[in-house]
């Protein structure tokens, strides 16, 4: 008796089912980064952005040892400085091995979704998950956003290998986009040696009053987004520092970086670009929300924020620039940076106390 042929569609479905949702290995580690979700045009579905990284414990070969030696020379510190527990913790993610080609499945409530793309060469994976509004397992509200927890599934329906959260923003409302280095904590990014020492060898030092400023805005209903040129490898340390100092929860938007990418040069030069594009994307994703932009004068925040205010005049409701000592801080610089931006939208300050009780416009 001849075998009955199965329909092609059924064969395709069976083939898909035979492929595991994830191929994460036992030694793989996964980090999830706080992300955002937005409503679609119908208002019936949330589009939740998922962003994370797959890595494994790395082998400290000759190449990485050479780069670490370069890092030591740039810092002008003795070799024993790299033996401290603090340095070992800060450098650990930089010397880890990136894992490419991993399929990622995430569980939101009772639903499991496989991301369409595998982890890339740098270990990072991204994807959007659609979830009906009436299926939303929201835990609580944080400022103007609902907080949704989700997890990355392990193989064979085993325990989750990582948990993360996304902040689901209403169509309208206020958001605060803030830099981190020299805005929320002392880094001295304009000095190569100080930048590296403060990043790898010293405990982070907060800028007094900034946590209260952001918490006050969040208390008025604003969502918070941390946008920085710091590499993703520092996410855990930055998030822990901000949490301990009382900064509000929020999404993170950092920079992708690999140790082998010319360590010193990349750490110093990649800070000069990319932030404007990230903020531009946030404003485009949430066209009816209004934004406060908080930064400092040490790098290019005035120029970036001024350009965004000219392009999105209705969305950018205010710009706050913390002034740090630098020969670049001249009246001519600010005139050029904020050309065409209404005078009352820009506030320059040195200490948060100078702002008084900063309130959201219209509050």
Describe this structure in words.
By secondary structure, this protein is of the alpha/beta class. The protein is built from ten helices and 18 strands. It has helices at 8-18, 62-75, 85-95, 192-200, 210-219, 235-244, 263-269, 275-285, 301-311, 331-337, and strands at 29-32, 35-39, 45-56, 97-98, 105-108, 111-114, 124-132, 140-142, 145-152, 162-168, 173-178, 185-186, 205-206, 223-231, 251-255, 289-296, 316-322, 346-349. The strands form three sheets. Strands 1, 2, 3, 4, 5, 6, 7, 8, 9 and 10 form a ten-stranded mixed sheet that branches. Strand 16, helix 9 (301-311) and strand 17 (316-322) form a beta-alpha-beta unit. The radius of gyration is 23 Å and the shape is globular. 35% of the residues are buried. The model is unreliable at 1-16 (pLDDT under 50).
Question: How would you describe the shape?
Answer: globular
The helix/strand class is: alpha/beta
Arithmetic mean of pLDDT: 87
Instruction: Please describe the biggest sheet, giving its number of strands, its sense, and whether it closes into a barrel.
Output: 10 strands, mixed
Q: Which blocks of ≥5 consecutive residues have pLDDT under 50?
A: 1-16
Note the beta-strand portion.
25-35%
Cα end-to-end separation:
79 Å
Q: Which radius of gyration do the C-alpha atoms yield? A: 23 Å
- How many helices? The count is 10
- Could you spell the SSE succession in H and E letters? HEEEHHEEEEEEEEEHEHEHEHHEHEHE
Tally of extended strands?
18
Helix content: 25-40%
